[in-house]
Amino acid sequence: MIADIANYISTHSAQLATQITAHIGISLFALIVATAIGVPCGYLASKSSRSEVIVTAPFEMLRVVPSLAFLIILIPIMGTGILPAVTALTILAIPPVLLNTSVGFRSIPDFMVESARGIGMTERELLYKVRIPGALPMMLAGIRTALVEVIASTTLAAKIGGGGLGEIIFTGLGLNRTDLLVLGGLLVAALSLLSGVIFDAVTRKLLRYKYV
Amino acid sequence: MKKAIRQMLALTLTAATTLGLAGCGGSSAPAAETKSVVVGSKDFTENEIIAEIYALALEDAGFKVDRKMNIAGSVVHTSITSNEIDIYPEYTGTGLITILGMDAMTDQDEVYRTVKDAYNEQFDITWLDYAEANDGQGLFISKKASDEYGITNISQLQANADKLRFCSQGEFDEREDGIPGLTKLYGEFNWKSSRIYDNGLKWEVIENDEADCAPAYTTEARLTETDKFVLLEDDKGMWPPYNLAPIVRNEVLKQYPEIEEILNSVSATLDTETVTQLNAKVDIEGEEYEDVAAEYFESIKD
């Protein structure tokens, strides 16, 4: 089987390269959109328990629909290709980002906020100098969870012509070829692990103060 | 839902009958006066319709027909060799490649003669006349691309591949009787782009102009929409023929030799277009396969 995999890699290297690039591209795109939506919404949700329900509920409800079903539902609206794939993955990725951000903002101790006010910080300064730095570790943890989930689920994009490593896996399923299934699975796993490691490195850099 | 219930019923019935037969020690000799046969089918629309037409034709000739439809494709051969069914519609190419494990050939008569001889010898089963209907592998393109570049066969497709977007379910790109085989016979296909989609989506993808060409089976229901899709002629004979034919156990055929003539006259009316249309009535218009078969049998009766 290892020989089969090596043979496939050598004859399909160009194709593999585009599949890996597409996989990373779709995943990152979805993650960035999810962060752009999830972080502000998470901040809003942290304001009060009522706003939490209003903001969280719709995303939680959408998240319950399996990503595969979502992809197919989106076809009449968005057609096929990368766009519906990114949309479905974004919906998958928003809840962990949103919930962690919300918890992050809530976990800032009252005394910190009060001391900040006490030394005369404006609300704006309070947000940028106290709240956001305080919530950042949780926020990043949420994004990391979403990242790993999204990379694994991007496999489904191949069902609707979005490309990515799912192409190898679905071809392997159709042909009942274990070598392709193993290769596709390993590559997705490797991407997931690698991106986790890179993300951790970035986190360490951002949160330097925690590690000195 | 209705279909699921029917399938479950069919399964339960099959299981029950099998158990019943086993219980009797398989000694259920047919009664002398009533002529009775068991017609089976595989588990997809087309095969069920054709089997039902066989059953109706036999009933019309005074047979009592026991139906065992919807048997999984992988076990239907075992069902007939273990005498659980007497007749079912099979495809010449399936017999040749899947059952007998022989190499592909492309001449219909040659394939038919080969399977007929081998089945008679190995399984004591007779292949009656084959119908013109061919449910084989094929490629189709959008009507728009066909008109624009004047493509009606695969040679022309190969020549224009650089202007066309291909889509497949993935396995076609790797399978020996897919792109690799086509490349050997027709030359390199330099598609403008090649993408992978779920097999069920190919019609939508092409209809929405997101691709131009895709693989399909030659009797798939939506190929009846000739204003949207054009099935390409396999002008160099890449794929083996998958002609439909009834196969009958020799024991049964010896007992009731008239079966041959009854079923041959049915097969004579079935060409690819007719079968595709029958499929479309069930798969697109949502009719029941029994009704479609009955209607068709009425139309060919005399």
SSE inventory with pairings:
The complex is a heterodimer of chains A (212) and B (302).
Chain A: H1 2-11, H2 13-45, H3 49-64, H4 67-78, H5 82-106, H6 110-118, H7 123-153, H8 166-175, H9 178-206, H10 208-211
Chain B: H1 2-23, E1 36-42, H2 45-60, E2 64-71, H3 76-81, E3 87-91, H4 92-99, H5 108-123, E4 125-127, E5 137-142, H6 143-149, H7 154-159, E6 165-168, H8 171-174, H9 179-186, E7 193-196, H10 202-207, E8 213-217, E9 229-231, E10 244-249, H11 250-255, H12 258-267, H13 272-283, H14 289-300
Parallel strand pairs in B: 1-2, 6-7
Antiparallel strand pairs in B: 3-10, 4-10, 5-8, 5-9
Helix pairs in contact in B: 2-12, 2-13, 2-14, 4-5
Task: List the main descriptive attributes of the protein structure presented here.
heterodimer, A: MetI-like fold, 10 helices, elongated, B: 302 residues, alpha/beta, D-Maltodextrin-Binding Protein, domain 2, three-stranded antiparallel beta sheet, 14 helices
Task: Describe the protein in words.
The complex is a heterodimer of chains A (212) and B (302). Chain A is built from ten helices and no strands. With 212 residues, chain A is mostly helical. Chain A has a single domain (2-211), classed as MetI-like fold (Orthogonal Bundle), CATH 1.10.3720. Chain A is elongated and about 70 Å long. With 302 residues, chain B is an alpha/beta fold. In chain B, the strands form four sheets. A three-stranded antiparallel β-sheet of chain B has the order 3-10-4. A three-stranded antiparallel β-sheet of chain B has the order 8-5-9. Chain B has a two-stranded parallel ribbon with strand order 1-2. The longest helix of chain B has 22 residues, at 2-23. Classes of the chains: A mainly alpha (212), B alpha/beta (302).
